[in-house]
Amino acid sequence: QVQLVESGGGLVQPGGSLRLSCVVSGLSFRFIDMGWYRQSPGKAREFVASVTAAGSTNYADSVKGRFTISRDSAKNTVYLQMNSLKPEDTAAYYCHYLTYWGKGTLVTVSS
After folding, report:
1. Is residue 18 within 8 Å of 12, Cβ to Cβ?
2. Cα separation of 57 and 20, whole Å?
């Protein structure tokens, strides 16, 4: 059974940082590309970042230079380090692989 379980969301002030985690089970994690998406109320889900099995990364323009995606194959986990957070980063963040999605973790950036 495939499971993607996100954690690490919460309330943070503008300019702050959070690190999201996504633990993957039921898949050969070391061989798959992984991604993070987000969805704000009333908006479509959008791409945030991705990392290939080889470690190559890609980012949405809106988060380049502020967010870093990484993976740890020993822990079957993909991370999203988010720095210099802005109110517009407020969203539910989802881990993704092909047709599989986690349930999301909520990030709220507010003073």
Report:
1. yes
2. 16
Find all residues with CB under 8 Å of 72, minimum gap 6, and list them.
78, 79
Q: Are strands 105-109 and 10-12 parallel, antiparallel or unpaired?
A: parallel
DSSP string over 24-70: EESS-GGGS-EEEEEE-TTS--EEEEEE-TT--EEE-TTTTTTEEEE
Give CA angle at 91 (18, 31), nearest 5°.
70
92 vs 58: CA distance, rounded Å: 20
Residue of 55, 85, 47, 92 lying closest to 67 (CA atoms) = 85
pLDDT digits (tens, 9 = 90+) for 85-109: 999 999 999 999 999 999 999 999 9
DSSP secondary structure code for residue 94 in this structure: E
Question: Please, which contacts does 51-57 make with residues 24 or more away whose CB atoms are closer than 8 Å?
Answer: 51/78
By C-alpha distance, which of 34, 45, 50 is closest to 2? Answer: 34
Q: Is the pLDDT of residue 38 over 90?
A: yes
